[in-house]
Specification:
- This protein has eleven helices and 14 strands.
- The two termini are about 40 Å apart.
- The strands form four sheets. The protein has a six-stranded antiparallel sheet, with helices on both faces. The protein has a four-stranded antiparallel sheet with strand order 3-8-6-7. It has a two-stranded antiparallel ribbon with strand order 4-5.
- It has helices at about 5-25, 65-80, 90-95, 135-150, 180-185, 205, 225-240, 245-255, 295-310, 320-325, 390-395; strands at about 110-115, 120-125, 130, 190-195, 195, 265-275, 280-285, 290-295, 310-315, 315, 340-345, 360, 365-370, 375-380.
- Helix 2 (about 65-80) runs antiparallel to helix 11 and helix 4 packs parallel to helix 7 (about 225-240).
- It has one domain: Beta-lactamase (3-Layer(aba) Sandwich).
Length: about 400
């Protein structure tokens, strides 16, 4: 499986680090063959899907974009490198005691811009397999969506305890938690999982992310971004599927969309459970305490493109349009947030972008931004988080025709 091919990953990671030392911060607005000298008229209703191992590039002007303005946008992106150390040496200071693996070195800032399905800009080491931190939550959301589409979850409003009987939902507080609550981070689930408590109290366990004690609220009434509770969701989904979630992700999404064999979805060292006599690793909703989804920018772009196309890849509906609509709809409690996706329905997240845009985002920053109105996917990794809105504004400004 993709997450288990360690020898392949080591060799590709070595090549990625070597290339990064040569081409980091080098713009790759693509060397176009002479045969593509003249712009082509594209029918936007005839969607292109990149085959496995390849992705067609096109000049910006071929897909209705101004080359100079797009080049300026990419130069801006290259100038916004994150301040996070290359060696992850601040990990425990920020998040607390590690429970799983963390890489040795990360890539420099890098990214890909996809317009109408074609790569129009690329910079940095986009092949480097790095943790994507909380952007993994949006993949976990999609695994939940598959469960809904397959009928494994009959109704998102059902209590999780109706399907999962492992003691985690026995208390009066937890018995009220629904799948909907988990997916919107309003579960208020109470307990300890893999050595971390739900309350985030204590600097050793939670680093600078520690929180002050507070009274629990009724499930569904209070929003809190909480990885312990998302990890509980991941465990519940594992028990529901009855097979490792990396296998679900590979079989149902990543292989059908032509992703590489380099990504891995990891769990903590102690996150082992027995299901049907088989030891399985429960995965995480991020890399706060290590592990998580480690993936390159190209595979991130493929995942984003699947969502851009309404869950469809060529002639296959992988995720239902109904699920994507639900996942990208704002909840009644908390920020502009869907089912583990960040939204802009209030027009405040990215003021110069459409309100229909949405994003997966993780520490670092690691982002996959999807703008259906402009037929765009933008993957941008290891950048200053505050710079994202400005980059999106510049990219949108480069669009000259629809």
């Amino acid at each position: 499986m993709p997450y288990a091919r360690k020898s392949t990953l080591r060799s590709r990671a070595f090549v990625g680090r070597t290339m990064a030392s040569i081409v980091a911060f080098t713009i790759l607005l693509v060397a176009w063959p002479e045969a593509r000298a003249e712009a082509q008229d594209l029918d936007p209703t005839q969607h292109y899907y990149p085959p496995t191992g390849d992705w067609e590039r096109r000049r910006p002007d071929e897909v209705g974009m101004d080359p100079d303005l797009l080049a300026a946008a990419i130069e801006y992106a290259r100038s916004q490198e994150t301040s996070k150390p290359m060696d992850f040496s601040d990990q425990e200071e920020i998040f607390g005691t590690l429970l799983g693996p963390i890489p040795t070195l990360r890539a420099a800032t890098n990214g890909i811009v996809v317009r109408r399905g074609y790569i129009v800009a690329e910079f940095g080491d986009t092949s480097k397999v790095d943790p994507t931190y909380s952007a993994a939550k949006s993949y976990l959301s999609s695994i939940a969506g598959l469960a809904v589409d397959r009928g494994l979850i009959a109704d998102l409003g059902d209590p999780v305890s109706e399907s999962i009987d492992d003691g985690g939902y026995d208390s009066p507080q937890n018995s009220k938690v629904t799948w909907h609550h988990h997916l919107q981070q309003t579960s208020e689930w109470e307990g300890e999982l893999w050595g971390k408590k739900h309350d985030f109290v204590g600097s050793t366990a939670f680093g600078r992310g520690e929180r002050q004690p507070r009274a629990l609220q009724a499930p569904g009434s209070y929003y809190e971004y909480n990885d312990v509770r998302i990890n509980r969701l991941a465990l519940s989904l594992l028990r529901l599927w009855r097979k490792p979630l990396p296998e679900v992700l590979a079989d149902e999404i990543m292989n059908p969309i032509g992703a590489s064999d380099t990504w891995r979805y990891l769990g903590y060292d102690n996150a082992n459970v027995q299901i049907d006599g088989r030891t399985m690793k429960s995965v995480t909703g991020g890399t706060r305490w290590g592990a998580g989804l480690w993936i390159n920018s190209f595979d991130q772009a493929r995942f984003g493109y699947l969502l851009l196309r309404g869950g469809r890849w060529q002639d296959r509906q992988i995720l239902s349009e109904d699920w994507i609509r639900k996942a990208t709809s704002r909840g009644p409690v908390g920020p502009d947030y869907g089912y583990l996706w960040w939204l802009d329905s209030e027009g405040k997240s990215w003021p110069n972008a459409p309100k229909t845009a949405f994003r997966a985002v993780g520490h670092g920053s690691n982002t996959v931004w999807i703008d259906p109105e402009h037929d765009l996917v933008v993957v941008w990794r290891w950048h200053q988080g505050r710079a994202a809105s400005e980059l999106y504004r510049r990219i949108i400004r480069s669009i000259t025709s629809e």
